[in-house]
UniProtKB/TrEMBL annotation:
Domain Sigma-54 factor interaction positions: 1-205
Cited CDD domains: AAA
UniProt keywords, alphabetically: Aromatic hydrocarbons catabolism, ATP-binding, DNA-binding, Nucleotide-binding, Oxidoreductase, Transcription, Transcription regulation
GO biological process: regulation of DNA-templated transcription
Protein name: HTH-type transcriptional regulatory protein TyrR
GO MF: ATP binding; DNA binding; oxidoreductase activity
Length: 286
């Protein structure tokens, strides 16, 4: 069982498990439990016999439990599986057999079953929306994928990886500007890895310069993107640099609200930012 917010890479993890298992030579199939009505979902998963219902194929149809024989079947968004189908799936898990729609003979299931969901299944069990017995049968090896905002050390490596990937796909030579990486590392990524992948591809194909500067980033406030030179103080280079640094930190604090978020957006340690704000007697809540 893989749990995590939408876009955290649950399908990628399931595919990785399959590719590094003894079933790697078998098929890897996935079914989204929210993608179709209950009747179609049942037929897609379990298959059906000839004449099982009006409009059924004369020869019947194999379900994914059959097609995935010897391989892995991923049931995505298992928390949305209707209760009636949960009972049928429980038999598959417990007895490794299933009955096609309209069938009279059980068929053997030889698959690795991986389930994924963004829902809190324990809460759904308490609310009567998910079978308790099925929950415990599926949760033999529970895995939780934290959101990208809780594993920020992975953001820049992921950005570099997908930039290379999409450069090759679209025959481009884009590269990240260091400030762009710092700003993206401080973004909260509510869409997680899926958002990161989509943003990277969009920038690769839409930016008309080789270097992806902060100007092209949709997450960068204009005040952080282009500091106002006229607002800096007169004086030596060191004094002007310090004044510009103070403006940037004040703006980041006003934009993000906390020293932690502001430091992440600026690409510096929180302790460094706090020391500087104390030096300038800036009163902000951490």
């Amino acid at each position: 069982m893989i749990q995590g917010e939408t876009g955290t890479g649950k399908t990628l993890l399931a595919r990785y498990i399959h590719q590094h298992s003894e079933r790697a030579e078998g098929p890897f199939l996935e079914l989204n439990c929210t993608a179709m009505p209950e009747g179609l979902l049942e037929a897609e998963l379990f298959g059906y016999s000839p004449g099982a219902f009006t409009g059924a194929a004369p020869r019947g149809k194999q379900g994914l439990l059959d097609v995935a024989h010897g391989g892995t079947l991923l049931l995505d968004e298992i928390g949305d599986l209707p209760l009636a189908l949960q009972a049928k799936l429980l038999k598959v898990v417990e007895e490794n057999r299933f009955l096609p729609v309209g069938g009279t003979e059980f068929r053997h299931a030889n698959i690795r079953l991986i389930c994924a969901t963004h829902r809190d299944l324990q809460q759904q069990v308490h609310m009567g929306q998910f079978r308790e017995d099925l929950y415990y049968r599926l949760s033999v090896v529970p895995l939780t994928l934290p959101p990208l905002r809780e594993r920020r050390e992975e953001i820049i490596p992921l950005l570099d990886h997908y930039l290379t990937h999409f450069n090759q796909r679209h025959e481009k030579t884009r590269c990240w500007h260091p400030e762009s990486l710092e700003l993206l590392a401080g973004h909260d990524w509510p869409g997680n890895i899926r958002e990161l992948i989509n943003l990277t591809e969009r920038l690769v194909v839409s930016v008309n310069e080789q270097e992806i500067t902060p100007h092209w980033l949709p997450h960068v406030p204009a005040s952080l993107e282009t500091p106002n030179p006229s607002a800096t103080c007169d004086g030596s280079l060191r004094e002007q640099v310090m004044e510009l640094e103070r403006q940037l930190i004040e703006t980041a604090l006003a934009t993000h609200g906390t020293t932690r978020a502001a430091a992440a957006a600026l690409g510096i340690d929180q302790s460094t930012l706090v020391k500087k704000t104390r030096r300038w007697c800036l009163s902000r809540s951490a």
